[in-house]
Amino acid sequence: MVKMSCDFRTISKGKRRNPKNPIVKAFGSLRNGIDGSSHEYVEDPCDADLVFVFGSVTRRKEGTDRARAILGHRRDKRHIASLDIGFLKKDSNVFRVGYGDCTGEGRFLFEPRPSRVKIFGVSLKEVVRRDPGLPILILLQSERGWTYDDPLSMDEWLRRTIEDIGDDREILLKPHPTSQQSLCCGDYGSNVRILPVDPKRKNMSSVLADVGAVITHSSSGVIESLIEGIPSFSLSPRCVAHRYTCHDLAMLGNLENYDFGNRQKMIEDWAANTHHVTEFNTEWVERFWLEIQNKKNNH
User: Fold this and answer.
1) Mapped to the 3 state alphabet, what secondary structure does the chain carry?
2) Is the pTM of this model over 0.85?
3) Residue 96 pLDDT > 70, yes or no?
């Protein structure tokens, strides 16, 4: 019998006791699933063999409750199942679950099943080779965003990336939806234009319609650009789409040969590892632990 727990310290203080909060609901479903399983739910996550957490941690935010909790579990070598918001459906009650981490550095255990893709109704757009002179879109992180884990500041990373692009095509900078940082176009070059902050993420589709390529450090927005059939570049292994994108900006000069071969596998992988809170039942808990054991024995 395995001891399992949900670590509420990884939810923001003001939300962790709100039963209407989607993360709290997910943890509640997981507890019910564990209670009905062959395993045991324990109140103290530090007594658990497998602990469910929300989100991840970066070196910029190691003093938060979430960071201290996750770093403690890593230090004590517990199994960690990390939840974060899902991508394939705009529903706050849908989560992806990674083993070890919910970023690109985690492992997503469930094997693809075509039937799962149909549940989310996601279909890949046809790849249409675009005019090589179209603007390049850079999806920005917030400076303290949890997926941004580079020793450089966001500003330094952005300047180096623009320099690496190395041509005079127009470059569009899309701020993170929660960004409160003011950026000045003139600071980055005459060919750089900054788009308005879009806090409700309503304008992504219209922005993608008029660009030739998308670059990010580790924004999950690059998944949408891949689905739309746009050459996409992620420059950090923490990006959840890192394994499905190109990492070499030299390819910007040869976009007609961009390889979109991983797109179908991407949506199949995400569909297999993305779940509504109602799916976190006893069967799911048993299956998740079995997958951990299978992967452990096969590596």
Assistant:
1) CCEEEECHHHCCCCCCCCCCCHHHHHHHHHHHHHHCCCCEECCCHHHCCEEEEECCCCHHHCCCHHHHHHHHHHHCCCEEEEEEECCCCCCCCEEEEEECCCCCCCECCCCCCHHHHHHHCCCCCCCCCCCCCCCEEEECCCCCCCCCCCCCCHHHHHHHHHHHHCCCCCEEEECCCCCCCCCCHHHCCCCEEECCCCCCCCCHHHHHCCCCEEEECCCCCHHHHHHCCCCEEECCCCCCCHHHCECCHHHHHHHHHCCCCCHHHHHHHHHHCEEEHHHCCHHHHHHHHHHHHHHHHCC
2) yes
3) yes
